[in-house]
Design a protein that fits this description.
mainly alpha, 4 helices, binds zinc ion, elongated, 70% helix
């Protein structure tokens, strides 16, 4: 799967996915900021005794998890784009065999073939 047409297809898809992930990360950061602002509000400041404070902590953890997930996704996408650039995209990092294009289409940031991924 080393041909140029496929590389163009995956570069386009990864670029679009990256833009989406950046938007997600920024939206999460804004949402986390909103929760922090809400916690800073004197009415909701007492985390220990105010049930709403605890809810905000949980919400903060959830949003922060999503934000970190989006950042990880950006890293994976950047790594995939780098593999396209150096010609190793679509080659399993474990066994060195080409990864079937159906798998790459389903998961454009995949670095292993299905047998290697399930052999972890
Ligand atoms: Zn493999």
């Amino acid at each position: 799967m080393a041909d140029a047409a496929n590389h163009a297809e995956f570069t386009d898809r990864l670029t679009a996915l990256r833009a989406q992930a950046v938007r997600d990360a920024l939206a999460r950061r804004e949402a986390v900021g909103g929760v922090i602002a809400a916690r800073g509000d004197p009415a909701g400041a007492d985390d220990e005794h105010d049930p709403e404070g605890a809810t905000l902590s949980t919400e903060w953890s959830r949003l922060e998890g999503l934000r970190l997930g989006a950042l990880r996704e950006i890293e994976e996408i950047d790594a995939a784009l780098a593999r396209i650039a150096d010609g190793s995209y679509g080659v399993c990092i474990r066994c060195g065999r080409p990864i079937p294009i159906e798998r790459m289409r389903a998961r454009p940031t995949a670095v292993t073939c299905v047998p290697c991924a399930s052999a972890v």
